[in-house]
Amino acid sequence: MSENIESKPYISFLQAESKHKGIFKWILSTDHKRIGIMYLAGMLCFLLVGITFGFLMKLEMLTPGKTLFDAQTYNTFFTLHGIIMIFLFIIPGLPAVFGNFMLPLQIGARDVAFPRLNLLSWWLYVIGGIFAIVSLFLQGGPIDTGWTFYVPYSLRTGTNVSLPLFAAFILGFSSILTGINFVTTVHRLRAPGMTFFKMPLFVWAIYSTAWVQVIATPVVGITIILVIVERAFSLGIFDPSLGGDPLLFQHLFWIYSHPAVYIMILPAMGAVSEIIPTFAKRTIFGYKAIAYSSLAIAFIGYFVWAHHMFTTGISDVSRFIFSLLTFLVAIPSGVKVFNWVATLYKGSITPGVPLLFVMMFIFLFSIGGLTGLVLGSLATNVHVHDTYFVVAHFHYVMFGGTVMIFFAALHYWFPKMFGRMFNEKVAKWSVGLIFVGFNMLYFTMFILGYEGMPRRYWDYLPQFQTLQVISTVGSWILIAGILLMFGNLHRAMKKGTSASANPWGGKTLEWTIPSPPPVHNFDEIPVITHGPYYYGEEEEK
Amino acid sequence: MYNENTEHTGHTEKEHSVGYGTYVLIWLVLVGLTVTTVSISGINLGNISLAVALLIATVKSAFVINIFMHIKFEDKIFRVFIAIALMTLLSVFVLTAFDVFFR
User: Fold this and answer.
1) Is A157 helix (H, G, I), strand (E, B) or coil?
2) d(CA A468, CA A454)
3) Could you say which of A102, A188, A307, A512 is the most buried, measured as most Cβ atoms within 10 Å of its Cβ?
4) Helix or strand or coil: residue A498?
5) How far is CA A282 from CA A103, A396, A415, in A?
6) For chain A, what is the largest distance between any 2 Cα atoms, rounded to a whole number of angstroms?
7) Tell me, what CATH number does A56's domain have?
8) Are B103 and A2 an interchain contact pair (Cβ–Cβ within 8 Å)?
């Protein structure tokens, strides 16, 4: 196989022909790079829909009482915003797009271990998305349970619950298959000489994430099926009026959905560990500590789920244990942040757009992480549970964390993926707008929540209006920044100047091949002799 | 030049064959254990009924994993993978029990 490929001329994967024509060249392609870009296209569409729901929700909160639509519509909007953002954007997120595109490149492979399974994962993602959308238009109306589908309400509401739940079930399969593919790829397809401790840290993060995808996702699959069956046949698994246990649902749901938080954030942390050395021109500080901390976060992340349930009536013993375990996650997270900042120290820093996003990430994620400790403490949790404080916290972690790094990774690997450069000046303006808008939108929510504004409420007391208005205006600035960013990238795809193979001076393997990469990735599979961030003498220490 | 099969050079495919007789025997054992599970569910064993059901399920899955999924004949790494998954599951059970039994 390699011998034949070696003699082929350079053909970018974007221009490569196949036995299929037109759009089928893409949607039936098993090339990991094309699949990565197809995920990107699908996810960005869903992201824009999710942003629209968020924008409308904030617009409704501009004044107390009815501003634009009624309470039931608001219920469906926050549910759809959550389902779309969580299941269709952030969870597939970095692994589906950049994991697919970069993992084989970074380990010196020609593709993932199971290319056809990879295409099946993408199709399952699309089918799951279609099911979710179809459910909006069926009799009964869009789902209004919140993205957590809590029983007993989700068993009794007359809106369409079973179909979007089934959509989440299908999306779960997509996630599991991707996880299996990535674990196998890392174990089987690393280039000669690439030991585990010579792998780029993004690969470590994707590897850790893949394990969480494989082990945790089946739990939510089973839970979803149980809810669907209970709705259809009233079995009494979760419904207390039939002898069921509603807390059992919450246990099962969060046994998956808390590790899912790490499915979202770990790959982002991996991307940070790629971007910082490149823009600081320094070997990463504490490589092994970062690699092990990824595994530690993935591992501890399994055992903290009940901190979502402190006020539900679970036993005091378990509340104490889960609070303690929750605090333990802060240790490997702190290790990462320390090492990133230490890498920057005395580095030769170039303030490129990806690094600016990373700086924003460290700032926002630190706020999100520290307020997580407020929520992890039993006493303070009771005070701010189900308030805007929680909404602000998880947006700082998920949006300020994962999504900011999604944007960073998009800018970092954009030249490699599309072979074009974007306008840096415009991109920096978008970074500024996003930063200002984000903090106006969400920091006000910390204050509102602390003062008692409950989440998911359509109406509010007049004393909250000033902060609500600031928050709503912040959403406009944030969205303006995001649209400017995507407009800039879209323009770059069409009219951007050609990108060289290594525009940022990165050291990992994807920067050793042309931009965009050829169909077969490497003319000759490289032999690895040193670590992934080799910047001269520091490597020798 | 890198050989695509380099990773496999150290991995010798062990010859193994499980006769049809063994498969049928295991299948009969599984059916028998299923019948046992259903029968026992009709008997009031109190608090240990859950433990008994889980024990039978564990024995059944051990047969399926080892024989039908061929793990008995595979490399050690696969057994490590399964052990990690099982330990995680066990930890989840134990942590859930801290709520259910102390509520």
Assistant:
1) coil
2) 13
3) A102
4) strand
5) 22, 28, 21
6) 73
7) 1.20.210.10
8) no
Please give the Cα distance from A436 to A529 (Å, whole number).
Answer: 44
Of A212, A248, A255, A75, nearest in space to A157 by CA: A75
pLDDT in tens, A405-437: 999 999 999 999 999 999 999 999 999 999 999
Q: Which segments of A67-161 does DSSP mark as H helices, in order? A: 71-83, 93-94, 100-107, 115-134, 153-156
Q: Are A355 and A407 in contact (CB under 8 A)?
A: no
Helical packing angle, A32-60 and A115-134, nearest 10°:
20
pTM of the model: 0.91
Chain B positions touching A190 (Cβ under 8 A) are 7
On the 0-12 / 13-18 / 19+ scale of CB atoms within 10 A, A50 is buried
Sign, CA torsion B84/B85/B86/B89: positive
Which residue from B minimizes the CA distance to A214?
Answer: B85
Q: If you search the block for the tokens 């059992």, which residue do you land on?
A: A248
Q: Please say whether the beta carbons of A347 and A358 come within 8 A.
A: no
Q: Which domain holds residue A164?
A: 2-540
Cα A423 from Cα B93, distance rounded (Å): 53
Report chain B residues touching chain A, CB-CB < 8 A: 1-4, 6-7, 77, 84-85, 88, 91-92, 95-96, 98-103
Q: What is the ipTM of this complex?
A: 0.81
The distance of A188 to chain B (nearest Cα, Å) reads 6
